[in-house]
Automatic annotation (TrEMBL):
Keyword terms of this UniProt record: Glycosidase, Hydrolase, Signal
Protein name: beta-glucosidase
Reaction(s) this enzyme catalyzes, per UniProt: Hydrolysis of terminal, non-reducing beta-D-glucosyl residues with release of beta-D-glucose
One annotated GO molecular function: beta-glucosidase activity
EC annotation from Swiss-Prot or TrEMBL: 3.2.1.21
Membrane spanning stretches: none
Length: 746
């Protein structure tokens, strides 16, 4: 390369850095200039957020004069405002304030805005990081066109307990997978850069440990070792931060005796200290004043003091910052410097979003119209929905169904419904009747099949309730058909926030309806819509074919039809372990071996297991079948010993040994045989989703390095320890096809 080119390249490189740095320094200068003009009341206003009066996502007590607060500069952010018209109206109020500081509009855009995508847990079952990122990108594009600057997503809480209804909005039980999904979602939401018209700020939640609520009971206490926190629950938050997340949200729970919203260890030591987070932290809905209920704050004023000092920058919905911070600063119970730091963090984001240049930048009605009815968005939703459907059983190759089936019975309370497909946290956009906007299974199948097929229908039962009066008709209809599809599950709001279930089974009489249909002896496909792993032991034993169809969003019916008739070969794998019994919960694959591991699943004498249940999950983490089969061969490691910071190359060959093209998620697990603390029997450390034509063979490669082997050792230091490691490659956490081992030396 010529010298001149080198110099130019260097200048460009430096230039880019300088540009970025300059931009950041310029923003800081603008923030400081504005800060100097602000009264203490106006500063506190920027730390205050309320929900729009129209939609509560928590216990009510919405301040009646939110609008007055905005007009007087005492409210800096509003959330759950839907549509550009509404956001424009609110923004006009903010521009009547003395300093005309624009409002931030937030919303729970958790899995789509107008185009609803599968619930986050379902998307993770696709193990397709590109599709997951694209889903967030579409959601951001639509939300930004709808006036939103900031989504309260991704939720990255590791969850091992399906009694907790919020498993539906996360990424399941595995830290490695959840960390990669968290990063993909942040990149999807934030796009190229903040300030772009289709970029929204991400909000990583709920910081931290919320998914470990005792008993799976929402909002319940969390108690775990510092090791468990660091090793299992924090990494997805760090991955999201490293991906550039703009904001964090605190969780409701107390963690080891200290509410997360008042937890300076979490917020100042870890997030803003060790991790150097420069965005801002918002509380969860009234989680600041709830510290009084926790018994951690004497009153609202005390709660405001604790939260601000702990590092919460914005108070969502409780109003205690607005009501107490000015006084607390005057009484020197809160430092003005800490208030200024919180204001700076928030104003910096408003500048980066470009709101001071154009406060109405996101409130463009014409752009909204174009973005919200976009066939490409629905195509993306249909694609990932089909990829999220897990084939749990297919005895006798009942699936895929033939498109020339003569009589097909569609039975069950989910077949013709639309709204249930949206699941919890779907966004209601005015003028959209979701009951029809989501494609039902009936409509999806009808659109797929020709006139040679007669579709028969019987609802059979409701989703909830014990009425069995529809069973006889359902049995009659099934008896007339050549094949039966029965679709059951949870109502859209049976999983989600404050939806913990002590008995996460099929609601009402649905399991009995399935029994009646299976008794006809017809080829039956059972499809289960739910926001969480359910317990359905009888169905798992007796139904010939089972698809787990989650809540798949706007294109649900089309995606289900794509899979039922083989236009899409199911490739999804479970992101959470499915228990046989509620009594097994919490049950997860990466457990420790204990000193008395059961040699077989049925051994009970003097080993760790249950005397009244086989010691196995119903369906393990990483499990999912296909309409084709795959063979795993020829595992090769490029060395027997991995040294220091070297890399170990792992190769194997995968062959599609069936007659249908398909995709397989090849999973790589490691086990650290002996260490300074006990280590899990296996841990996911790599996966590749591989598409193969029938008969095709592909070499699949993984790289293992010191980071892959590292954990928080007995001194809680992140490090790898010398010794022997088992290496396993398989189709699920309990279907290991190839094994090897290697040594690690420092
Ligand atoms: C809720 C949820 C949180 C959500 C917030 C705003 O209580 O815990 O996830 O983002 O309030 O709706």
């Amino acid at each position: 390369m010529r010298a001149g080119t080198i110099v130019l390249s260097l200048l460009l490189a430096v230039g880019v850095n300088v540009a970025h740095g300059t931009e950041s320094a310029a923003v800081d200068r603008r923030v400081d200039r504005l800060l100097k003009q602000m009264t203490l009341e106006e500063k506190v206003g920027q730390l205050t957020q309320y929900s729009a009066e129209s939609k509560a996502t928590g216990p009510v007590a919405i301040e009646s004069n939110v609008r007055d607060g905005i007009r007087s500069g005492r409210v800096g952010s509003v959330f759950s405002v839907v549509g550009t018209n509404s956001t424009r109206q609110y923004q006009e109020l903010a521009l009547q304030s003395r300093l005309k500081i624009p409002l931030l509009f937030g919303m729970d855009v958790i899995h789509g805005y107008k185009t609803t995508f599968p619930i986050p847990l379902a998307e993770v079952a696709s193990w397709d990081l590109e599709a997951i990122q694209r889903s967030a990108r579409v959601a951001a594009t639509e939300a930004a066109a709808g006036g939103i600057h900031w989504t309260f997503a991704p939720m990255v809480d590791i969850a091992r307990d399906p009694r907790w209804g919020r498993v539906m909005e996360g990424a399941g039980e595995d830290t490695y997978l959840a960390s990669r999904v968290a990063a993909a979602r942040v990149k999807g939401f934030q796009g190229r850069q903040l300030g772009d018209a289709d970029a929204v700020m991400a909000c990583v939640k709920h910081f931290a440990g919320y998914g470990a609520a005792v008993g799976g009971r929402d909002y319940n206490s969390v108690d775990m070792s510092e090791r468990m926190l660091w090793e299992t629950y924090l990494p997805p938050f760090k991955a999201a931060l490293d991906a550039g997340a703009s904001t964090f949200m605190t969780s409701f729970n107390d963690l080891n005796g200290v509410p997360a919203t008042g937890n300076s260890h979490l917020l100042r030591d870890i997030l803003k200290g060790k991790w150097g987070f420069t965005g801002f932290v918002v509380s969860d809905w009234r989680s600041v004043d709830e510290m009084v209920d926790h018994g951690y704050a004497a009153d609202n004023k005390d709660a405001a003091r604790i939260a601000l000092n702990a590092g919460v920058d914005m108070d969502m919905q409780s109003g205690v910052y607005q009501g107490n911070l000015v006084q607390l600063v005057r009484e020197k119970k809160v430092k003005l410097a800490d208030v200024d730091d919180a204001v700076r963090r928030i104003l910096r984001k408003k500048f980066e979003l470009g709101l001071f240049e154009d406060p109405y930048k996101f409130s463009d009605a014409e752009r909204e119209r174009q973005a919200l009815n976009n066939p490409e968005h629905r195509k993306a939703a249909r694609d990932i929905a089909a990829k999220s459907i897990v084939l749990l059983k297919n005895d006798g190759a009942v699936l895929p169904l033939s498109k020339s089936v003569r009589k097909l019975a569609l039975i069950g309370p989910m077949i013709k419904q639309g709204v249930e497909n949206h699941g919890f946290w779907s966004v209601t956009v005015p003028g959209v009747d979701y009951a029809h906007q989501a494609v039902s299974t009936w409509d999806g199948i009808a659109a797929k099949l020709g006139k040679d097929t007669t579709l028969l229908y019987a609802k059979g039962s409701d989703i909830d309730g014990e009425d069995r009066s529809g069973f006889a008709e359902a049995v009659r209809v099934a008896s007339e058909a050549d094949a039966v599809v029965i679709e059951v599950g949870e109502r859209w709001d049976a999983s989600g926030e404050s939806r913990s279930r002590a008995n996460p089974t099929l609601p009402g009489g649905q399991e009995d309806l399935i029994k009646a249909i299976v008794a006809t002896g017809k080829p039956v496909v059972v499809m289960i819509n739910a926001g969480r792993p359910l317990v359905f032991d009888w169905v798992a034993d007796h139904a010939p074919a089972i698809l787990y169809t989650w809540w798949l969003g706007s294109e649900a019916g089309n995606a289900v039809a794509d899979v039922l008739f083989g236009d899409v070969n199911p490739s999804a794998k479970l992101p959470m372990t499915f228990p046989r019994s509620v009594g097994q919960i919490p049950i997860y694959y990466n457990h420790f071996n204990t000193g008395r591991p059961a040699p077989t699943p049925t051994t009970t004498e003097w080993v760790s297991g249950y005397i009244d249940l086989v010691n196995l999950p119903r369906f393990p983490f990483g499990f999912g079948l296909s309409y084709t089969t795959f063979r795993y061969d020829d595992l090769r490691l490029d060395r027997e010993t991995l040294r220091g910071n070297d890399k170990l190359q792992v190769r194997m060959t995968l062959t599609n040994t069936g007659k249908a093209a398909g995709e397989e998620v090849v999973q790589l697990y490691l086990r650290d045989r002996v260490a300074s603390v006990v280590r899990p029997v296996k841990e996911l450390k790599g996966f590749q989703k591989v598409a193969l034509a029938p008969g095709e063979t592909r070499t699949v490669e993984f790289t293992i390095d010191k980071e892959s082997l590292s954990f928080f050792n007995s001194a809680l230091r992140w490090d790898a320890e010398p010794g022997e490691f088992d290496l396993m490659v398989g189709a699920s956490s309990d279907d290991i096809r190839l094994r090897s081992s290697f040594q690690y030396v420092r």
